[in-house]
Each structure stands twice: as structure tokens, then as C-alpha cells.
Amino acid sequence: MATPHSDALLAHGPLLFLSGRSPEAPDGDVAGDVAGQTRQIFANMEQDLHEYGSDLRFLVKLTYYLRHIVDLDEFRAALGECLPDGVRPVGTLVEVSGLVDPRHLVQVEGVACLPGERG
């Protein structure tokens, strides 16, 4: 299985920094599994990117905070579904003992180049 990340990626600014996104839907609901939470995080992230005229294709760096490393395969599968074809940002995965909301199993923060600036 191909990994959903790159080992290195050249990016030319301007850069957009996205704070850690939670898996909450606009109505406050949180999926009970890592895959559902990952999909919601990327839907939230895409909404943020659209506010700046960007989208998921322009992500260059992602940091993943996963509560339970045993969920890694489920997380990677969902991540592969969320990222557009050919988009493989560099990434760092950290297992954490907890997140702000105990319902949260995963959180993702990112960096994107604004359109026309990705190298």
C-alpha cells in the first residue's frame, strides 16, 4: 500500500497555516470511529481552505495526532480517501494520550500553499 505522504516537498509561499482541526461536524456531532472523524476533519479543513481560495490539492504539510496507534491502518485508509489523487503532503504522525474532547480520536493540523504557488 502506498503511503499517503511524501518524504519531501518543495513549496513556494505564500503559505497558509491551519490550526489543529477537530472532527466535529457543524452541528457538533462527532463520529465514533477514526475513519469517520478523519473524513470530517478533512471536510472542515477543505472549508477553511476555500475561504482563502485554496483546496486540499495545495496541502504541503500535515501533522496527525492519533489517540490510539492501533487505529493507524483505519486512519491511513480514510486519509487516502480524503486526499485528492496525487496529493501526498509531507507528514508527521504523533500518538497522544488525549485530546481536548474525550470523543476525539484524531486531530490534524496543516500547511498549504495558496494556488499557483506549490512547487
List keywords for this structure.
4-stranded mixed β-sheet, 119 residues, 60s Ribosomal Protein L30, Chain: A
- Tell me what portion of residues adopts beta-strand conformation: 15-25%
Give me the secondary-structure category.
alpha+beta
User: Ends: how far apart?
Assistant: 25 Å
At CATH's second level, what is the architecture? Answer: 2-Layer Sandwich
Count the strands?
4
SSE topology string: EHEHEE
- CATH class (first level) name: Alpha Beta
Bin the helical content. 10-25%
- Low-confidence stretches are none
Counting structural domains, the number is 1
Strand order of the largest sheet: 1-4-2-3
What general outline do the C-alpha atoms trace?
A: globular
CATH H-level superfamily: RutC-like
What Rg do the Cα atoms give? 14 Å
Main pleated sheet: 4 strands, mixed
The count of helical stretches stands at: 2
Mean model confidence by pLDDT: 91
CATH topology title? 60s Ribosomal Protein L30, Chain: A
